[in-house]
């Protein structure tokens, strides 16, 4: 990672399904709480790593279904694939590590002899991973039998059972834990070892994450039996690993506070918009707060107050402009006035707004250029745009806050709003 000149303040390495993403939370509230916290307080100087058993195909599918952030690093297919950035550039060095003592053909040949094993879909079969379904009461028997078969064939593999049904056969060097250890060693060699690392998981294939030295760990409250059993047998006395009392992403936020790794109050947990603006003089927080206010305004979750609109208008530069994704140019003050008509138009509806990859850059002594992705999720689907905001910082001793000078938005390909007239900021 070359985004930082020095070490990241915090690196979070999190499983996705039932850890970062709560599939029993139709409103995605815990995930959205984490999103707001990360973008407001951590994105600019920390690293977000998703470590999932999903293949690239299923990972991209999940990103379309849930309001997920874009990670800096993605570890997929149970630690057999590491990629970087938006373009998901593969780590060739990791591929070389996994090629040692691995023969996929032998794995397929030996596993075909067991009727108890059912191959998962083609998308889940990867160069260094072969995945099956197996009944829970047959899992241990299968793992033992397969280990003996592979040993006789001179094959060095790793067998992982998780989720009460998934059995993955990986190259011996693979796994979520080994992938994390590889990344930490890589950062160390570059002189950029993160100041703190927090591993987050819920199932058996996450256990390795908690075995890496000097890494904090959180098992979310809904962690599965196989992970809790591993913890009881291997790490019960380890103060760096906790079993959260909160589910999924809420448990991750809880762990940040428990280990004193940094701020752990999500902007979504703060109800007073005006007080929050006065207390947080930070461009990332400014962006998160504004779009969270916009969501709450349209859901009628804040008071229909002229004071709120007046405070927004007060921080708009007199000649500030907003360039709509359709190309229409409007004064920022007119956009604030237009908010009056939109109050409560999404009340009682599934409507959420979140921002992703909020990256402020100071381009002058008192000027910030902030680029990010802005998303809206409603009953009609989701739409998004690339957003650029120019902020001018005021004298903090006089008035904590920023002046909004310029807002420019461009639709993502295939992610534009069907009704351009309803798009606000």
Automatic annotation (TrEMBL):
Keywords: Hydrolase, Magnesium. Coiled coil: none annotated. InterPro entries: HAD-like_sf, HAD-SF_hydro_IIB, HAD_sf, NTF2-like_dom_sf, SPP-like_dom, SPP_C, Sucrose_Phosphatase, Sucrose_phosphatase_pln/cyn. Pathway: Glycan biosynthesis; sucrose biosynthesis; sucrose from D-fructose 6-phosphate and UDP-alpha-D-glucose: step 2/2. Residues 283-412 form the Sucrose-phosphatase C-terminal domain. Residues 9-260 form the Sucrose phosphatase-like domain. One of its GO terms (molecular function) is magnesium ion binding. Homodimer. Catalyzes the final step of sucrose synthesis. Belongs to the sucrose phosphatase family. This is Sucrose-phosphatase. It comes from Nyssa sinensis.
């Amino acid at each position: 990672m070359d985004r930082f000149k020095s070490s990241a303040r915090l690196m979070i390495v999190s499983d996705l399904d039932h850890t970062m993403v709560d599939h029993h939370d139709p409103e995605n509230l815990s995930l959205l709480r984490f999103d707001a916290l990360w973008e407001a307080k951590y994105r600019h100087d920390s690293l977000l790593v998703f470590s999932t058993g999903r293949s690239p195909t299923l990972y991209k599918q999940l990103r379309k279904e849930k309001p997920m952030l874009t990670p800096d690093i993605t570890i997929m297919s149970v630690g057999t694939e590491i990629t970087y950035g938006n373009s998901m550039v593969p780590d060739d060095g990791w591929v070389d590590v996994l090629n040692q003592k691995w023969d996929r053909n032998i794995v397929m040949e030996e596993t075909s002899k067991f009727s108890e094993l059912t191959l998962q879909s083609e998308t889940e079969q990867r160069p260094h991973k072969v995945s099956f379904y197996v009944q829970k009461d047959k899992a241990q028997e299968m793992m033992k039998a397969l280990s003996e078969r592979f040993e006789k064939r001179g094959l060095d593999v790793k067998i992982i059972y998780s989720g009460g049904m998934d059995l993955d056969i990986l190259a011996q060097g693979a796994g979520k834990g080994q992938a994390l250890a590889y990344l930490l060693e890589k950062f160390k060699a570059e002189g950029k070892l993160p100041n703190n690392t927090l591993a987050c998981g819920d199932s058996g294939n996450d256990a390795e994450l908690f075995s890496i030295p000097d890494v904090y760990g959180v098992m979310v409250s809904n962690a599965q039996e196989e992970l809790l059993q591993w913890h009881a047998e291997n790490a019960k006395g380890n103060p760096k690993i906790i079993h959260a009392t909160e589910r999924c992403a809420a448990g991750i936020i809880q762990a940040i506070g428990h280990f004193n790794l940094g701020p752990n109050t999500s902007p979504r947990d703060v109800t007073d918009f005006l007080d929050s603006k006065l207390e947080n003089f930070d461009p990332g927080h400014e962006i998160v707060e504004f779009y969270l206010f916009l969501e709450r305004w349209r859901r009628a979750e804040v008071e229909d107050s002229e004071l709120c609109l007046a405070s927004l208008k007060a921080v708009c530069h007199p000649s500030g402009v907003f360039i709509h994704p359709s190309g229409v140019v409007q004064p920022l003050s007119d956009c604030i006035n237009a908010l009056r008509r939109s109050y409560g138009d999404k009340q009682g509806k599934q409507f959420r707004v979140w921002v992703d990859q909020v990256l402020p850059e100071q381009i002058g002594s008192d000027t910030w250029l902030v680029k990010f992705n802005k998303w809206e999720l409603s009953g009609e689907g989701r739409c998004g745009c690339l957003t650029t905001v120019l902020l001018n910082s005021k004298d903090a001793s006089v008035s904590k806050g920023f002046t909004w000078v310029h807002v420019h938005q461009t639709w993502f390909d295939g992610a534009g709003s069907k009704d351009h007239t309803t798009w606000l900021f």
